[in-house]
């Protein structure tokens, strides 16, 4: 049964500047948001920005690829909201996989580091949030949106590339996880989705790139809108996968 | 340059009861809608319903699989709005392919009829509306949403099935067209998208099916919301393909 | 029961110069081959070449996209071998879809001509040969290879392209048919396969193209070997789909 | 330049009973084979069997998922054949990923163990053999077959499943690696391929399963034939991916 005291939150891993910040701001229009990133310095300005806009945000520095990081995060939330007094309405795994293009035979230990960190992060995060997403199915308020878990993918989620083995392995693996969780938790009422971001995202770091061609980079606020759209879908009509690319992208 | 006199319309082929009607009602919240279906009898109640809700709708009986049907439709619209005085903001090809499961060797002439009708319909419709979608790119009002062409697909868009050759050929072919048009007209500013409807749609005809399991059929209003979401995307962030299925669907 | 008098043949539609001829020569090492092409002039030299090499070949001019062409072909074979006295060990649909790249809005009636001819051809051919492939399952000699139906696909079987809608629709549709027939007739013992030819084929017509780069075009004899390999597989281990491309092809 | 003293070998990781043994026997018809498996006890009978059949085989117990295992394997081969005196004609990564179906939230540390071991194994193996495959391109004898690297995949290479996240992540990641290596090393003349084994393989362990239905399990000798077929292809006509399934498999 829904309790009036139950708090529904959104939690975003990879809430640094760019896509993560856009997603955080979008979900903060409806939910208190919990923001995870490796460095507190990425979180503080975002928490402040959301707070000033009238939202509620908590930043928790956490490296989700490390064992224990998600457990201690969830414990901190239980202290914050009271054990059994919160559910997760939406969880987004937006942690970047390390992108590098390098000749396979020149690569060293780092070749698998990206895969292992990404896979571990995605798995740790999913294990930590799914019990709270399931609790939202059981105890959520009447009329709530189905609890949602979204993974951020990339072009390389669908296609390997010369020198891109490490990145593609990461992204293929996350897609495999997203599909497997969708097939396991969908029937339990949790909406699991995967977004293929097929293009350069417009961020501070990419602002020189294609600077003279308007709209040639993906607006991170529209990645956030797409994730919100996914969250808004009722359980009769779940989208598992969608792609996003600029109008002028070659594909 | 945008002219104050230019009218932006939405046009839906396959605007019969069910999905087509939901799409029509959704787009009628913003645009005058032009509804195409083979029989006037499917159109009249929908036109009336939209009109009573404060929208504007025109029903044109047209079999888009027939040569000339779309030309005469567009000419009728030019008489209605004035030549060069309207653009198409959104066009939806929602004409059903005939679904039948039958042993291949027992099938007759009808085996290819579905493919040919669907392919011809999708092609005729696209040829007729694309000049007006391109005109919307050129002449549309400031701040308009990118003109959008959406095709309705199905499970069989991705996967053939025993006894389903005719239907799958239709659906694969439409997907090929959608991809080809997206790659040709995307760079010109037209958003071409394809939706994979993977499940039974909740309509009058399917109401007995899974009657005891709530939300086990796709809500057509949420197909319409998905199409509207596609239309709402700015050109920096086009989704070409998304799927839609009930939470409990096996896939 | 296998009859000593039953003849096992191979039949190739699209047996013109290039890939079709290579396939014909390969299968003629084991079976009498029946060669279909629109023009007798493409068939005569090939029949002679196979005969001189010690094989048996019959050329039948036939446009498989035309109604009745396959029926009259099969009747001719019944006259030749005696009704109920032959089975089809292998059938290959290698009829080229018309390839053209053209702006969608500039295309005319021919836009759908390719799709309709290809789909009709593939369907007519399959309907005509499948009863004889099934008969081979029932009546074939001990130890024969499973009867096999192979369709030639292309890059555009998987991916639409700007200006390629007509060709891609054809190729997607054939792939849908191949998948559907595999799922229907595989369990009955017929091996249905689809080959994605992803690159330029080395033929008389393409000899100027990449002339200075050895092996940059697909050797049609190796398409033939791939088809023979498919035919050689026992029913425990059917390959439904494989791709073929030059080592230096970008994909 | 090819040296008469250069030895061309085949090397198979995962050469235990079943598929690995079949592949080893098939390639031993042409090359000395180097067999890797975790336990010497799996290797000894196979080495003896190949030797008695007139082939040459070396078994090297090695856990390719462990750092250093492949380096010491390759050093052992250099001692055996002489530094710079051997090339790898064919390398097969057939190491099984641990298959388990378990509820995601009940899984522990082992959830990622499969992925990490498989990814590490596939990456270690590829890094160790590719220099010798490239050397085969440079120094191989006239008329040799293009050096080939084949990865064994599964149904779960293409599709996640409820409770199968761990296995699917492994298999998706290997496919990503295979695609990336194909795109990097194909243009250098190395044939990189990926086989999707979609069904139960007929082995000692599976002999009770479907025991009453002949040919319902994949014959491992025909997996081996498929790998040999891949190896036999000239560089004008490389197959990157093929599937293999019993005629009666649902897919």
From TrEMBL, chains A, B, C, D:
<dbReference type="Pfam" id="PF00106">
    <property type="entry name" value="adh_short"/>
</dbReference>
<dbReference type="InterPro" id="IPR002347">
    <property type="entry name" value="SDR_fam"/>
</dbReference>
<dbReference type="InterPro" id="IPR036291">
    <property type="entry name" value="NAD(P)-bd_dom_sf"/>
</dbReference>
<protein>
    <submittedName>
        <fullName>7-alpha-hydroxysteroid dehydrogenase</fullName>
    </submittedName>
</protein>
């Amino acid at each position: 049964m829904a309790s009036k005291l139950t708090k529904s939150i959104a939690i975003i891993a990879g809430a640094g500047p760019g896509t993560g910040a856009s997603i955080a701001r979008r979900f903060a229009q409806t939910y208190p948001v919990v923001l995870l990133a490796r460095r507190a310095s990425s979180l503080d300005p975002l928490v402040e920005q959301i707070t000033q806009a009238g939202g509620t945000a908590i930043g928790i520095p956490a490296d989700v690829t490390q064992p224990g990081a998600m457990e201690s995060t969830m414990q901190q939330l239980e202290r914050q909201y009271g054990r059994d007094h919160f559910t997760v309405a939406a969880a987004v795994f937006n942690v970047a996989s390390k992108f590098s293009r390098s000749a396979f035979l020149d690569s060293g230990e780092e070749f698998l580091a990206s895969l292992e960190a990404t896979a571990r992060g995605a798995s740790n995060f999913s294990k930590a949030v799914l019990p709270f997403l399931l609790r939202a199915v059981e105890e959520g308020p009447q009329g709530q949106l189905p609890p949602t878990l979204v993974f951020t993918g990339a072009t390389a989620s669908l296609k390997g590339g010369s020198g891109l083995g490490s990145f593609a392995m990461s992204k293929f693996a996350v897609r495999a996880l997203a599909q497997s969780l969708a097939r396991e938790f969908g029937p339990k009422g949790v909406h699991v989705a995967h977004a293929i971001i097929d293009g350069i995202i417009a961020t501070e770091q990419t602002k020189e790139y294609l600077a003279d061609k308007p709209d040639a980079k993906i607006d991170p606020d529209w990645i956030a809108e797409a994730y919100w759209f996914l969250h808004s879908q009722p359980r009769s009509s779940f989208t598992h996968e969608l792609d996003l690319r600029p109008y002028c992208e070659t594909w």
